[in-house]
Write a structure and sequence with these properties.
By secondary structure, the chain is mainly alpha-helical. The protein is 76% helix and 0% strand.
């Protein structure tokens, strides 16, 4: 092989390696941008979850929402935030509540029930609410008392002064 061909092949190899290196750097930057975007979306989702959780817990404490409905919504939000929170001795009542009322009909399925069946389910729902009223109130209080810590832990920042500012603070 002549020296000229060797030099040409070496230059082509260097150009190919440089092109591949440039492409790899471009892909790496794109991955970093996507990861940052995904992290921001996760933080925003957690902020929205905390905002909803706080609003529901406050509504439960003030009687603005049915305790069963509020407890079920809190259960879902807590599991979205961190499944380990559902194992907390006080917050676990949300799971207990779900276990006791999950078989009851809702929405369109409830409308299809006869009036007698609806009344029976309403009585069951009220009995569960009465039995768990105190633990549910305690759990709502625990949610509210943990808000400052949860903001630090899950969002990495202090809780905004006003709950309405949560979603905007990201």
């Amino acid at each position: 092989m002549s020296l000229t061909i060797s030099i040409i092949l070496a230059v082509i190899a260097i150009i190919i390696i440089a092109g591949l290196a440039f492409y790899a750097l471009k892909l790496r930057r794109e991955v970093k941008v996507r990861e940052a975007r995904r992290e921001q979306e996760l933080i925003q989702a957690r902020a929205n979850c905390l905002e909803s959780l706080e609003a529901i817990a406050r509504a439960m404490q003030t009687g603005q929402v049915d305790m069963v409905e509020g407890g079920l919504r809190c259960k879902v939000l807590i599991e979205i935030l961190d499944t380990r929170l559902a194992e907390d001795d006080v917050l676990s009542v949300f799971g207990v509540l779900h276990g006791r009322v999950s078989h009851l009909h809702t929405h369109s399925a409830r409308k299809e029930l006869s009036p007698r069946e609806r009344l029976a389910e309403d009585k069951e729902r009220i009995a569960v609410e009465e039995a768990l009223a105190e633990p549910l109130q305690l759990a709502a209080s625990r949610v509210l008392s943990n808000m400052e810590f949860w903001h630090q832990h899950y969002l990495g920042r202090k809780r905004p002064a006003s709950p309405a500012d949560l979603g905007q603070a990201v």
